[in-house]
Fold this sequence. Notes:
Layout: H1 2-15, H2 20-39, H3 50-58, H4 68-73, H5 77-80, H6 83-87, H7 97-100
Helix pairs in contact: 1-2
Amino acid sequence: HIIANTTPVAAGALLAGSHPVVFLVWLIIVNVSTTISHSGFHLPFMPSNEMHDYHHAKFNQCFGITGIMDHLHGTHARYVASKEYQRDIVLTSTTPARVLLPDEPKKND
Length: 109
């Protein structure tokens, strides 16, 4: 955890010589973002966790936070074509994203 999660978050701010208050605000933002991403909840007025959930379901898609590197390396193509991508929005109501954009019904073979 310290090598993979904490060090990269702290390294940039420490190497840049950030003010301690800026560093603290950065740590708060990162921790809130991580909590939301791993919560499994798509809360109103908060960033969506759909991309992160998709990453954990597929393991070879959606590696970055912003999607820029995924676009450059082509590791987001299936995600962009998915229902999860359509749900990757900031909700402005208490209606769940899965209710607003439900999964397609499965076809019976």
